[in-house]
Design goal:
By secondary structure, the protein is mainly alpha-helical. It is 76% helix and 0% strand.
Length: 266
């Protein structure tokens, strides 16, 4: 398969998986590994997230604009923005400190990705079956302490295969947030987190990129944008109706198939 087609496929996978608890990075690393695709410093997998960022920003533009315009006058808007920033900070601190280890060690282990997909799927399945009595049903009303603890859970997603949205949703559920608002908070938290990862990775690896790499990233970006818009518009209603079990079983299936492909003699 030519690199340009692989870039499009990976971009579609990024958009389809970024905002659901299945680990977009894990899927990209596994598919890239089995297709023989490699980018300098695994930068492609991070930089095409810009498409997913623009996808969620376009869908939520009205709410974002409302927050921006009411920020000076509305205490609720200020509290919500502060909550997102508090949730964002732990991943910044840990991500910067561990960046090189994550990219050169963890990203290079397909077996680790498969294992974390399976373990995360089992945890998500257990959480989905537990009967919580939610205390928080609106992301705008999450206490600052709750937002910060969700941000600590997000740090787990620095291990590929864990899933950023999966970790934040799991944390929110344990803190007695309902499923829909947990997923929506994960959407809002994705914006600064992914933008920060994009900017830092570009800064660290821009000298390694050539014109061909940039072209492939551009193709992946467009594909991620298109598929990301579709997912953001549909996933909250899907979660409301079906919960997280379908995502958990998908994670387990992908992890098991991945391990089989890695270790079963050809």
């Amino acid at each position: 398969m030519p690199d340009w087609l692989i870039a499009i496929v990976l971009g579609l996978i990024e958009g389809l998986t970024e905002f659901i608890p299945v680990s977009s990075t894990g899927h990209l690393l596994l598919v890239g590994h089995f297709l023989g695709f490699h980018s300098p410093g695994n930068t492609f997998q991070v930089l095409i997230q810009l498409g997913a960022i623009l996808a969620i920003t376009s869908v939520y533009f009205g709410r974002l604009w409302g927050l921006l315009t009411t920020l000076p006058t509305d205490p609720g808007s200020r509290r919500f923005v502060i909550g997102i920033l508090l949730a964002f900070l732990p991943a910044v601190f840990v991500g910067v400190l561990a960046h090189d280890f994550i990219k050169t060690v963890l990203y290079e282990s397909p077996a680790l990705v498969c294992t974390t997909l399976i373990v995360g799927g089992l945890i998500l399945l257990g959480l989905d079956r537990m009967k919580f009595e939610p205390r928080h049903t609106d992301v705008a009303d999450y206490p600052l302490k709750t937002a910060f603890i969700i941000g600590l859970f997000q740090c787990l997603a620095l291990v590929p295969g864990v899933s950023r949205s999966g970790a934040t949703i799991a944390g929110a559920l344990l803190l007695k947030c309902d499923k829909r608002s947990a997923a929506e908070f994960s959407f809002f938290l994705a914006m600064p987190t992914m933008a920060g990862a994009f900017a830092y990775d570009l800064y660290k690896n821009i000298d390694q990129l050539n014109a061909n790499d940039l072209g492939l990233i551009g193709l992946g970006f467009v594909a991620a944008l298109i598929s990301g818009v579709f997912v953001v518009k549909t996933v909250l209603n899907f979660i409301t109706r079906h919960g997280f079990a379908p995502f958990a079983w998908w994670r387990i299936a992908v992890g098991v198939v991945g391990l089989a492909l890695l270790y079963i003699p050809k």
